[in-house]
Design brief:
By secondary structure, the protein is of the alpha/beta class. It folds into 2 domains: 163 residues, Response regulator (Rossmann fold); 109 residues, Rossmann fold (3-Layer(aba) Sandwich), CATH 3.40.50. It is built from 8 helices and 12 strands. Strands 1-8-7-6-2-3 form a 6-stranded parallel β-sheet, with helices on both faces. A 4-stranded parallel β-sheet has the order 10-9-11-12, with helices on both faces. α1 packs across α2, α5 packs parallel to α6 and α7 crosses α8. It starts with a helix and ends with a strand.
Length: 275
């Protein structure tokens, strides 16, 4: 459900940007809030086999995603990538993507520049890449920027933000974790701390506490923020440590790092949940 909502949201955002590009409105966009995806790959451009109709043609021709980690596994970045691909097909655009986090070394500015060199009219950035995005927004007013997990209020006309109710999603996961744990120890593996991810963790832990209260028992909650969204080995090592401490449920909200934790958990046949 969360994947589908994020795909649809990003698709709608791209449509909105394309329409704004053809209008003459002077009012800045407001924040959009909606309810509920190792080695950097070479960029690949894709074109749909059939050209867009005259009704859907716009001035935009290329869209680029700056993902914080791999788009090849289910999770935050893949969901965004899939949404971009939907718009690419429907609007006859070329698309590519770059990864900003290489094992903790986040260089969103350089990856945004790669998108600009690609000739992107629309650039999608995520989470901890907000500061680099703001700088690029100011320097390239003719390029539209979509910030996923970015809070944008009364921003420039070429920058819009997409936010979800992260705490509510995390709460539901935590509540379920509290209901199914047998060892009464649950865990969470998180990426670089920034407000939406911190809301995920807080919601998760509050959900666990409510389940514990309703079941009249104590549940220990383990959790840690790691230094990268793109370090599966670190995620796996953290998961193994939690297994040894007796946890039987994990929430992985850390991009590819969280995927590493999930795969380790799956290997040990524990219960797993992921962003």
């Amino acid at each position: 459900m969360y994947q589908k909502m994020l795909n649809v949201t990003l698709f709608i955002m791209l449509i909105s940007v394309l329409l704004v590009g053809c209008s003459t409105a002077s009012e800045p966009p407001t924040m959009i809030s909606v309810l509920p995806t190792p080695t950097e790959p070479e960029p690949t451009a894709t074109k749909p086999p059939t050209p867009a109709s005259d009704e859907t043609k716009t001035d935009a021709t290329k869209v680029c995603l700056v993902a914080k980690s791999s788009v090849d596994v289910n999770g935050f970045n893949k969901f965004i990538y899939d949404g971009m691909q939907d718009a690419t097909k429907d609007y006859g655009l070329e698309s590519t993507y770059f990864i900003s986090d290489t094992s903790g070394n986040v260089d969103a500015g350089a990856r945004i520049q790669d998108c600009l060199d690609f000739g992107a009219n629309i650039i999608i950035t995520t989470s901890v890449e907000k500061d680099a995005t703001i700088k690029a927004v100011e320097n390239y007013p003719d390029v539209f920027f979509i910030g996923v997990d970015h809070f944008v209020e009364n921003g420039p006309k070429n920058y819009v933000g997409v936010q979800t109710h992260d705490d509510q999603v995390g709460f539901l996961v935590g509540y379920l974790a509290g209901l199914v744990t047998k060892s009464n120890i649950v865990a969470g593996v998180y990426g670089i701390p920034y407000p939406p991810l911190m809301r995920f963790r807080n919601g998760y832990e509050q959900g666990v506490k409510l389940a514990a209260q309703e079941l009249d028992k104590e549940i220990e909650i383990l959790g840690v923020y790691l230094d990268s969204f793109n370090d599966p080995e670190s995620g796996a090592a953290t998961a193994l440590d939690y297994i040894e401490q007796g946890a039987d449920v994990i929430f992985g909200a850390a991009g590819a790092t969280g995927t590493g934790a999930i795969l380790r958990w799956k290997y040990k046949r524990r219960r797993i949940y992921y962003q």
